[in-house]
Amino acid sequence: MSDLTKKINVVGRLATLSKTVDFDNFYNINISIRNDQIALQGNLNPENTKVAKKLNIFLEYDNNMEILRGESEDGKLRIVLTV
């Protein structure tokens, strides 16, 4: 199956993720079928940094954009926190 025709179980992924993540703490959730990735965007706060730690996502500070960002080892989950 090519990258453009593969299917991902979005509902199942979000259900699994909701066991660890309180989506109310994030102001934007992007789902990319093409990249097979879910991206969470939120403000920098203790709750969101705890979520990243629970999901084993190392957040790095980007000086140019003034954000913290990181992604899971498999690249299927990305977190971006604004300062």
Give the topology.
Layout: H1 10-17, E1 26-32, E2 37-43, H2 46-54, E3 60-62, E4 67-71, E5 77-82
Parallel strand pairs: 2-5
Antiparallel strand pairs: 1-2, 3-4, 4-5
Task: Please explain how this structure is put together.
- The longest helix has 9 residues, at 46-54.
- The chain has helices at 10-17, 46-54; strands spanning 26-32, 37-43, 60-62, 67-71, 77-82.
- The model has no long low-confidence stretch (mean pLDDT 90).
- With 83 residues, the protein is an alpha+beta fold.
- It is globular.
- The chain has two helices and five strands; from the N terminus they run αββαβββ.
- Strand 1 and strand 2 form a beta hairpin.
Structural class: alpha+beta
- C-alpha end-to-end distance: 40 Å
Whole-number average pLDDT? 90
Poorly predicted spans: none
State the helicity in percent bands.
10-25%
Strand line-up in the sheet with most strands: 1-2-5-4-3
**Count of alpha and pi helical runs:** 2
Pattern of helices and strands: HEEHEEE
Rounded Rg = 13 Å
Strand content: 25-35%
Largest sheet: 5 strands, mixed
Shape: globular
Total DSSP E strands: 5
Which short descriptors sum up this protein?
about 80 residues; alpha+beta; 5-stranded mixed β-sheet
Question: Brief overview, please?
Answer:
The protein has 83 residues and is α+β, with helices and mostly antiparallel strands. It is 20% helix and 34% strand. The chain starts with 9 loop residues before the first helix and ends with a strand.
